[in-house]
Amino acid sequence: MPGKLKAKVVAGRHLPVMDRASDLTDAFVEVKFGTTTFKTDVCPKSLNPQWNSEWFKFEVDDEDLQDEPLQITVLDHDTYSANDAIGKVYIDIDPLLCSEAATVISGWFPIYDTIHGIRGEINVLVKVDLFNDLNRFRQSSCGVKFFCTTSIPRCFRAVLIHGFVEELVVNEDPEYQWIDRIRTPRASNEARQRLISLMSGELQRKIGLKVLEMGGNAVVGYLQCFDLEGESGLVVRAIGTACTLDKISSTYTAAIVQNLSNSSPSKDMKEAGFGEEAPGVPLSSGPPTPLRAQTFSSFSPSKSYSRQSSSSDTELSLTPKTGMGSGGSAGKEAGPLKALLRQQTQSALEQREFPFFTLTGFPPAFLLHVGGVVSARSVKLLDRIHNPALGNTRSYKLLDWNSFTADEPETRDAWWEELRQEIKSHAKALGCHAVVGYSESTSICEEVCILSASGTAAILSSRFVQDGALDTDHRLSRQQASVFTTGAEKGEGVMGSSASLGFEDVAPPACGFCHIPYDELNMPFPAQLTYCHCCRRHKVPDVLFTTIDVPTEANVTGKGCLIQARLCRTKKKGQGEGNATAISNLLPFLEYELHTQLLNKLKLRGMNALFGLRVQISVGDTMLLGLASATGVYLTALPSPGGIQIAGKTPNDITYEQHISNMQKKINDTIAKNKELYEINPPKLFTLDPDAFRSINTEFVEEVIGSPIPEPRQRSRLFRSHSESSDEVLELDLSHGKKDAFVLEIDDTDAIEDIHSLLTDAPTPPGFYSCNTEIMPGIYNWTSGLQMFTSVRVFRLSNANLTNQGLNKIFNDLCENLLKSLYFKLRSMVPCCLCHVNFIVAVPEDELIQVAVTAVAMSFDKDQSQENGRQSGDKTLMKAITENEEQLQFPLELSAESPSNPLSCAKGLSEVSGPLPSARAPSVDHSSFTDRCSSWIEQLRLKAHTIRRGSIKTMSSLEKASPVPEGRSRSLRSNRSCPGSSITVVKMTPLSFIPGAKIIKYLGIINMFFIRETTSLREEGGVSGFLHSFIAEVFAMVRAHVAALGGNAVVSYSMKECVFMENPNKNQAQCLINVSGDAVIFIRESELEATPSQTQSGNVQTSSNGEGT
Amino acid sequence: MSVELDVFVGNTTIMDKEVYQLWLNGYTVNDAVKVRMEGGVMEECEASAEVLLSDTMDQFRTFQMCERLLQNPAKLANQLLFQIPPDRQAMLIERYYAFADAFVREVLGKKLSKGTKKDLDDVSAKTGITLKSCRRQFDNFKRVFKVVEELKGPLVENIRQHFLLPDQLARDYAAIVFFANNRFETGKKKLQYLTFQDFAFCAGQLINNWTVGAVDNMVEDMDVDLDKEFLQDLKDLKILIADKDLLDQHKSLVCVALRGKTKVFNEMETNFKNLSRGLVNIAAKLTNPKDVRDFFIDLVEKFIEPCKSDRWTATDVNLYLTHYTNSAHILDSFKYQTVWTRYMGVIKSCILRMYHE
């Protein structure tokens, strides 16, 4: 239960002069944890004091260890007057509580003062001795790992993904307490910083407890936010995805290797979740198509759609909803499969209140289908809430406040709950049982607060979501209920499970997620469906909007680009409820327009899908700002977008017509130019000739595999036979694809505005690309050039009565100019891509618009990027395999572990020739419905299996040949790169990876909150000077903390909050910044030892798996 | 409608060399933007004036924030605020401490005091260098001067280590410090033809041969002040001109050696006594600080100008000085050989450097 925290103060340097007379400082240090304080001796008359203190020891509960920061205060000793504080350092010791993270914190920390900024540095050593605590009712959750990264962290493997965790704590904001009137700004700022530090510690601990309850050991995609509600308090809330992660180690690799070679079923039982799956899922089969149709009508719809209808009732009037785009699983004939799959997973997922995942990147085969974006907003009036729930406000006694009328977090909880319910119902309406890429945000202006939640409706594989507590009863009873149907389902179940096992190669790679999850006869919204351009079997929507990253396996034509929709709407000043109503009335229009703008811009670029969509609505006194950012791409699986057609309604006027045709021409030109720019040249053959498609597909696969396996051709033939029933439809949909030109009517001024704003978006300068997702589709050969930056602009509107159009233009120009400036600044990095471009807009005051951008510029190698389509296709696949190293082993490991067909797996590994008998055997074991079909499906799966295997082989040989192996290590032997000189270079990136390098250790989460205030704004260089140095200071402090943990980079870095307030008349300004990220140690690939991989030719496949750790 | 705030902060501090130079040159943001526009960055990168202005402002602000660190370059390497790659740091420091020859000629040998600083606007007007840049350069001189004043050890090395400057620049600063400390007169009209590098060379000679440090290298101020004992000893050289026999002997020895080797032999012979008197008098007077200041002007007036009027070539001067020095060693009654060598070695190389044809 308890732990011992030890701290030692070594030295200081570059201290400020505190004694004007001597130009020196008599410094000493106070080290405080909780209520215990230690002091060092005074080091007289030195700006570079050496204290070399003893070890200060604090004996504390681990609960406190999690909540409290270690507080180090540097003071100047004064004999006659009070000691002057030089500054403080808060050290979050959470990383030390996790056995796998950092072991010691040691390094130079900037001494920070909220008024003066950084004032020198202090060298501190911190250690923790933690005694193991197995108490089940403990309040601490030490050992639960936290990651900001919104995908499975690179050196881990997901065993289970448990799902959504959320927590929220509320407190009174020290800034708004009565005592604030008499205390100094410094004291007030420090109280605030400390409170937020405490609250986030507490929040993290509570979330950790929830994770432990769920049986997980980590939180991935941890997103913590602050709501500064002013008078009504301070809310710290967090959401995340609970997971059980396994560190990928060499011993583990060995186990896999062994497992593979022996194909021993002994390991099967280790994973309960997987064992569970075995009896229910595969290995029996109903007769083919006609019967499936029957099942479809009789069984699945009733169940899934009754839910949908009920959910639609719960929609709230205040909250507009958006459901955009879609993708689906099977076409008509696969209805039952869908139903089964859904139920399977649903049964696991539905045990949870919210089947939400904050992840945006997924283990392979986890994401099956994507429905589209779901979002919900609600407008709330903030009230001062009474009756503190003391359990949530432990910090009071620490801060020793005299009066506390605190808020109950229940109210806020209820608000979010409401919103999440709505999201859930939206997802259901899209035929999805889960929401991925989920995030929540708020915008507050005075007492009005807009809560927003958004995510992507999706169908997930049951693979990772299964709990130990999976309801087998449920499924069993269902099976008994209709024997016949079950048979059919089971037949499909094989397909389903094979998909979930990562054998999606059965379908042409990775178009699965584009297939619609909802039923095409009962579509939740009007959309034009066509057959998937990859597999030709399933229906896909014409456009797909998502909040997730581009799945690594996705087939993308050309490159992507950042697409933004920007909108400003004026609003009357209002008070209270009236104001809230006005805002909520405006919201739907705002969202609709943003959506239209996005769609237009997407089409203008000749693309058909949006990833990483993030819609921000900011509210001010007199306006609403909407900014939607996303990365547009051309998904090969989706139909080519039609052009934009302009139509006028007054056809008599000749000049008018001319005007229109001019505009039309401009638009067409732009589309053509964009297609060229983003290298969008979809293989036309795909849409024209199924045969051509097939041959290309075959060629493609062979290209990738490069080994003489005859499978592909055979495989494609199988496809054809499989999709025979839908051949006619195929022909039909071709003509249909050309009709979908988008018509813009420019009768109204709005449309003219739209077109205008469409055309005014300046193209990125040559050599630049931009996206707001993790990776840019179409660019893979990153060099190590990396530049993370934050840029902030505040724009003052001098003219108070602006029209919507005027405002729009200003806002649009502001964003465009900001982007232009960024391109100019980073021109030396060309060719380069701005990745993870994240805009935060705010309306800090009546006439101010604030835009903050954080992104990373990454340069890449130009030569390789200009390869033709097929080669890059190769690369895509290769990348998909190499990039997500850990993903490789899933299929292998699973096949080895799967009890369903251990024999066939073993066979599959060794030989392709004789899968038939072996496949049959297990089917017999598990079901009486053995027939021709089951073995057929079995065979299909095995072939896919083999193909995958072959491709791995090729990959590794390709790897060897390529001069710059990416994202993959050859050996783990060379370990930690020691920081050499006095200052470690710390890289920062909002991405979850560092190009050309390998993350070997996660050291813990960095979550820091700073306040900076000045009363001498002019002297500090005005608002720009003030903010510039503050941001630089924040970076410096983040780097220092990472370096002290032994790390050399921060990944998944984000600036979540940047609240800037100024009062130039009083020469004052204040700014709050909240940043977070994951501290890591990475090593350059060039530093990695090369293993003698040549000798492993026979074993390459396994070794490449093993190394992909 | 206006941009109220506009900042860009990179994890690695972005600095454009060209903009840095404009900043160092003391341009205002607007002037710098103009220069950049003329330089053609805009066409290169499709930027607008607005973008250029924003970028320039931002970088100027960054430089301003860095300036505090640049004034103490050792700090730049272990500060945490700006993450700057080492090669960039070196560039920043080198350029910050670089100075214009035109400027340094104006202040070389002047006292680095507030008074001189006040006169910088005149210097600025005269040289066309912005006042801001003049101030920076002047402050650099003063800062370096103040720091090395209190340090022991070789001057150049101290400067190099303390300010992390490249060798050549450190040497130049050593010269500046040396000149400022000894207040050598360099501004007279007759000295105008000399470049800073001429003086820097001479300073190097003086530092290496005439200071205390040249003999004993663990004395304070050793490289900054001339060796007093040596200066005292120089008085003894007076015998060369005071003693008539010695002077004649010396002359005949030199003439014997020079005969037939130069076209200006006759002039040499006629001028020998004048020239020798000039050089020895310079030596003898160096105990007087006032005369130390006039060292270079004396060299010009007493030696270089007479030679020039007789159209000596540099080779002639070299020949003459070599034999002039060596012949003194043969004089039996001349006992101050070491002092003579130490004196003439420096004089010879200085004169040769200062002798522009």
TrEMBL record, chain B:
Annotated GO CC locations: nucleus
Name of a matching Pfam family: FIBP
GO biological process terms on file: platelet aggregation
InterPro entries according to UniProt: FIBP (IPR008614)
A Gene Ontology molecular function term of the record: fibroblast growth factor binding
Protein's name in the database: Fibroblast growth factor (acidic) intracellular binding protein a
Naturally occurring in which organism (per UniProt): Electrophorus voltai
